[in-house]
Request: fold
Amino acid sequence: MTTNRIKRIFLEAGAADYDLTRRVLARLPGVPLEVIPHRDALRPREGMPPALVEEAKSTLLLAVQKGPFWRPCPGTKDYVCCGYQVLQVGLNCPLDCTYCVLQGYLNIPAITLFVNVEDLLAEVDSRLAADPEKVWRLGTGEFGDSLALDELTGLNARLLPFFASRPRAVLEIKSKWSRLEPLLSFGPNPQVIFAWSLNPPEIIRSEERGTAPLEARLKAAARAAAAGFRLAFHFDPLIYFPGWEDAYRRTVERLGAAVPPGAVAWISLGGLRFLPPMRQLLHRRFPLSRIAAFEMVRAPDGKLRYFKDLRIEMYARMRGWLGEALPGAFVYLCMESPRVWQAAWGWSPGEDDLVRLLDGRVMPEM
Reply:
């Protein structure tokens, strides 16, 4: 269990009188607890050294979300955006992927859980009511794993029935974890999509420390589909290494053998990318990792990416393999330029087109 990895808890003074706080503390008896006046007391004065990034994976901060929970996914100019919306229910997670971009963004050395769940639900209701005809695709897995701490928090047991009664909104639960048995009783529920980030087993072993093996993720997806939930999969990041073709082809074949094509709402593809300062952090934290050793180029969005021709080749091959393994599945590119779409797919959607296509996967009348 990921909760066994928690070695220290910080409690923001204003977060004490919440049900989620009481639940978490009751499930972590004996873990050292320190009350702090505000989360800023934990903020390092001179950035996050690698040792603190490591320590953050076993440190929990219970805090109150003062800003909005609901935020648009941060798109980038000149790249096709899918219109995804993010529910920021926390920051960071106990899993430790070498390529995780959060390492370069977080400024608090802890896994932050926002405990004011009633405010979250009220905010979502208010936003939905403001535009009742619009389709919303929301997710909780942008700033942390949606399942890794769920046995501790019980958050999804609140969210799944909440979204079941809101027919114009869909919640995506995105994870690299595999335990979801307590949630299967909330199905069938077409308003909830269980999604898994996938990579070949050799990448999971070397680059996704603490995550569930590929087979466990695929078995969890099959159980979710059998319980009446829809599925999604994200090959993001796609990682280049010698032999990547056979490794990814076999992974796609295993995916196709594990889940029914009709249950799959969408599959995204995205090449490895990160801001330049993260390359040094990656080398320092994971000196045996191979992923930052391959040649990359600084793209217009300021991130390091594989050369365009390599990305196009990877996307085109993945699309072909996925089309054979899961006929009819909708496959799209995450944060890529129209030129790459055109070269890999033979066509390029505008942002409104991609939004409409994805909305149509969850609302057939669209």
The first strand starts at residue 8 and ends at 12. The mean pLDDT is 94. The chain has one domain: 67-362.
